[in-house]
Specification:
With about 140 residues, the chain is an alpha+beta fold. Helix content is about 20%, strand content about 25%.
């Protein structure tokens, strides 16, 4: 639906680098090509925690679930995908806490904290989100 480059200090800590690069997908669109991941619950800035799915062999984080959508949306770590080059960030978020030596590409969409989904997401992504929310109500 969208790809975030999240520069929050929590993502920096959890990834051990300057930002997390997550592609948001409906859970049913995510295909595992090996063993089912292990779920590890970790704390988060919201206090609600997140569920990180890790490869049971190498322990790399493959995707996360956040409380807003629960298990319905997976924030897939772009670097774990077959072709990560197809998922550049649509937006850089929480840039108020990005490392000062990180330079964003000229013209990159960036916000200091978060954003209004209705202003940033494509019409297709907003429709997918609407359908997902409807399913979650049932």
């Amino acid at each position: 639906m969208i790809v975030h480059a999240c520069h929050c200090t929590w993502c920096q800590r959890e990834t051990g680098t300057v930002h997390a690069l997550n592609a948001m997908y409906e859970a049913e669109r995510v295909e595992h090509i090996a063993a089912e991941p292990e779920i590890v619950v970790t704390p988060s800035a919201s206090g609600k925690g997140q569920r990180i799915a890790r490869c049971p062999v190498c322990k790399v984080a493959v995707w996360s679930n956040y409380p807003g959508f629960g298990p319905a949306v997976r924030f897939v770590r772009v670097g774990t995908m077959d072709d990560p080059g197809q998922c550049p960030p649509d937006i850089h978020i929480f840039t108020s806490t990005k490392q000062p030596w990180v330079a964003l590409p000229q013209g990159a969409k960036a916000v200091a904290e978060f954003y209004d989904v209705t202003e940033v997401w494509s019409d297709e992504a907003k429709e997918r989100r609407r359908v997902l929310r409807e399913r979650m109500k049932k």
